[in-house]
Request: fold
Amino acid sequence: MTRDTSNLGKVWAERMTKSERDQSFADSEPRDAATLMLIDRSGPEPKVLLGRRHAGHKFMPGKFVFPGGRIEALDRQMAAVSELHPDTQKKLNERVATPTADYARAFALAAVREVAEETGLLLGVKREAPPVTPGDIWAEFAKAKVHPDLGQIHFIARAITPPRRPRRFDTRFLTADASAIAHTIEGVVGPDSELVELTWVPIEQATHLDMPTITGIVLEELLARVEAGMGHDLPVPFYFMIEKQFFREML
Reply:
């Protein structure tokens, strides 16, 4: 772990620090969560898939976000056709109390499951036989005979919600290529759903949409990763707050 002293890193950390937020709530421990950014690099400029949250939600109403959520107990038990790249697994296990292979893979599987639940897009590989699933939360993958493929997952950034916020998460931002979409469940996104619309947007344009500060910064981190070649061995930025100041360290 090294403190990022680059000018760009300092700018991003300062933007996080200056973001307006109410820190008057009772403090709580952040919960492990995962977010997945689908990226389409088939055209002249990379695009990402964003969803707009329902305006009636208490949490980030109307904001553009990536699908994601907290890790469920069954996530780490789900089978996959390939496992995480060793470098990705290592970085997901840094700065944690009990690092294990199952703990790291749970982030990737939670992200894949949340994409399915919120967008209807099942990521992985279709096979003749369905995958063995640990419970109902993975039932759609069995129905569609889609097996998660963790080797396609890249780790882009980690961020912990500041103290004294109403909800706190220790989130891993992951990415996968749009070619990983193996099946689509129709009717998941709509006016009465958690996400009311999905849109593919060039990364540079996406940063100007109405979204949380961290989402915009991670989009810029994703673009930088694409330009650097998307290697699993590239350092991963970790954002966290100490005494009302954000820091950016590299995992």
Summary: Residues 101-119 form the longest helix (19 residues). Helices lie at 7-18, 86-92, 101-119, 139-144, 203-206, 213-227.
